[in-house]
Specification:
Layout lengths: L3 E9 L5 E8 L7 H11 L5 E2 L25 E9 L9 H14 L1 E4 L6 E8 L2 E5 L1
Antiparallel strand pairs: 1-2, 1-4, 3-4, 5-6, 6-7
Helix pairs in contact: 1-2
C-alpha cells in the first residue's frame, strides 16, 4: 500500500494554549519525509509559521471572529510530517501542497491582526530570507 503523508500543524496563542490539526495527503511522487519537511521549512516564516487559509488549510484558532484577544495571532505553526496508511483527507498530493506553500511564501504571507477585520503587512521570502513588507 502506498504511504501517504500526515501533516500536523497547530495554532498557539501567546499564553501557549494550543489547538491541533492534521491533514493527510497522497504521496504518489514518493517524496521522503525529510525532503517534504525541508521544502516547507525553507519557505515558512521563521521556518515554522504560515497563514492556514492562504494554503487552503483549516484554521484552528482558539478565538471566534470578533472575539480575538491581545495575545491572539494570525499564524499557524508547522509541527511535523509523518507516514500514514490512512486515506487522504485532502485532494492535493503532498507535492502539490508543497508547491502551493512555496508559491504563497514567494507572494508573501498575508499576515493580519485578528482584532481587526482587515489584513495587514505581508511577509515575503527574499533571497532565502523571510522579510516583513509594510
Amino acid at each position: 500500500m502506498e504511504q501517504n503523508v500526515r501533516l500536523i500543524y497547530l495554532y498557539r496563542d501567546a499564553g501557549n494554549y494550543k489547538s491541533w490539526a492534521e491533514v493527510i495527503f497522497a504521496n504518489p511522487d514518493k517524496l521522503t519525509l525529510l525532503e517534504i519537511e525541508q521544502r516547507l521549512r525553507h519557505v515558512l516564516f521563521q521556518t515554522t509559521f504560515f497563514v492556514a487559509s492562504q494554503v487552503q488549510l483549516r484554521e484552528v484558532f482558539l478565538y471566534s471572529p470578533g472575539d480575538a484577544k491581545f495575545d491572539d495571532i494570525c499564524f499557524h505553526e508547522f509541527d511535523s510530517v509523518e507516514s500514514s496508511s490512512e486515506e487522504p483527507t485532502d485532494t492535493r498530493t503532498i507535492k502539490e501542497f508543497a508547491e502551493i506553500v512555496e508559491l504563497e511564501a514567494e507572494k508573501g504571507w498575508r499576515a493580519f491582526d485578528p482584532q481587526l477585520k482587515g489584513r495587514h503587512p505581508q511577509i515575503r521570502n527574499s533571497g532565502g530570507k523571510n522579510v516583513l513588507v509594510t
